[in-house]
Write a structure and sequence with these properties.
Blueprint: H1 7-14, H2 28-44, E1 51-55, H3 61-68, E2 72-77, H4 80-92, E3 98-102, H5 105-111, E4 116-122, H6 131-141, E5 142-153, H7 157-170, H8 187-196, E6 199-210, E7 215-219, E8 225-232
Parallel strand pairs: 1-2, 1-4, 2-3, 4-5
Antiparallel strand pairs: 5-8, 6-7, 6-8
Helix pairs in contact: 2-3, 5-6, 6-8
Length: 234
C-alpha cells in the first residue's frame, strides 16, 4: 500500500522538527490554539482513562496535552523526525501515558480496528492527497459510539486571504508555504465524506483570531479554520 502522503510535505515539516516546541517560534499558533482544542474535545467526551490516537500528531503538542489530561494517548505521524522530537519532549516532561509511532493511519486501522475511544486529526486533512482515506481510517479506528475530531481549513476566499496571505506573508504567523488553498476542505465536503464512513456530525465550531489582541478564540464563524466532531454509528 502506498502511503497517503506528499513527500514534500513530510520533508517540509520534518525539517522544522526541532522548532516544534518553541512556543514563540514558527509553530506558536499551534501552542496558542491547543488549549482551545483540548477544551472543545472535553465537551464531547470524558478523556480520563480513555484510549486515543492523535493522527498526524507532528511534534506531539496535542497528543501530550491529551495524555497529561488523563488519556492513554498514541500519536502517529509519517515524519520520523517529528516522532523523534515528540518522544524526546515526552521524556523531558515525564509524560508516561503517551506513545508515538511512525505509521500510516490506514495501516494502523487495519491492525487495530475499533480500538480507540476517540480519535483526533488536527490540521492534517489539507496536507494529504486523499483526505477521504484518512477520514475512513479514523472511522475504522474508533469504537462504536466513539468520537472523531477533525480540524481543517475552509475553502473560501476569506480563508485564502487570512490563512495564507495574512498568516503566512503579512503577519508571519506560520511559515511561508505552509498551506495550499486548493487543498482546503469545505465543511459540507467533510461532512459528506464522514457520513459515508459511518460518522454522524455532533458539532462544529470555528477558530477565530484577533490580530489586535493576538488571541485565538472559538466561535460560530467557520469561514477559515474549523473543528468538526463526529460520532461513530453503533
Amino acid at each position: 500500500m502506498t502511503d497517503n502522503v506528499y513527500a514534500h510535505e513530510i520533508q517540509k515539516f520534518g525539517s522544522m522538527a526541532e522548532l516544534w516546541w518553541d512556543k514563540q517560534g514558527e509553530f506558536w499558533t499551534l501552542h496558542a490554539i491547543n488549549p482551545l482544542r483540548l477544551k472543545y474535545i472535553q465537551q464531547f467526551t470524558d478523556i480520563n482513562g480513555k484510549r486515543v490516537v492523535d493522527v498526524g500528531c507532528g511534534g506531539g503538542i496535542l497528543t501530550e496535552a491529551l495524555a497529561q489530561s488523563g488519556a492513554n494517548a498514541l500519536g502517529i505521524d509519517l515524519s520520523g523526525d517529528l516522532v523523534d522530537v515528540a518522544e524526546l519532549h515526552a521524556l523531558e516532561t515525564k509524560t508516561e501515558t503517551v506513545n508515538y509511532q511512525k505509521i500510516a493511519v490506514e495501516k494502523l486501522a487495519e491492525e487495530q480496528p475499533e480500538s480507540f475511544d476517540f480519535v483526533t486529526c488536527m490540521e492534517m486533512l489539507e496536507h494529504v492527497p486523499d483526505p477521504g482515506s484518512i477520514i475512513s481510517a479514523c472511522a475504522k479506528l474508533v469504537k462504536p459510539d466513539g468520537m472523531v475530531f477533525f480540524s481543517t481549513l475552509n475553502r473560501k476566499p476569506k480563508s485564502f486571504l487570512l490563512a495564507i496571505v495574512a498568516a503566512e506573508y503579512v503577519l508571519h504567523m506560520v511559515p511561508k508555504g505552509t498551506h495550499e488553498f486548493k487543498t482546503f476542505i469545505k465543511p459540507h465536503e467533510l461532512c459528506q465524506t464522514a457520513r459515508t464512513a459511518g460518522l454522524e456530525l455532533q458539532g462544529m465550531i470555528g477558530i477565530e483570531y484577533n490580530p489586535i489582541a493576538k488571541r485565538f478564540s472559538l466561535g460560530k464563524n467557520i469561514d477559515v479554520n474549523y473543528i468538526a466532531v463526529f460520532k461513530k454509528q453503533a
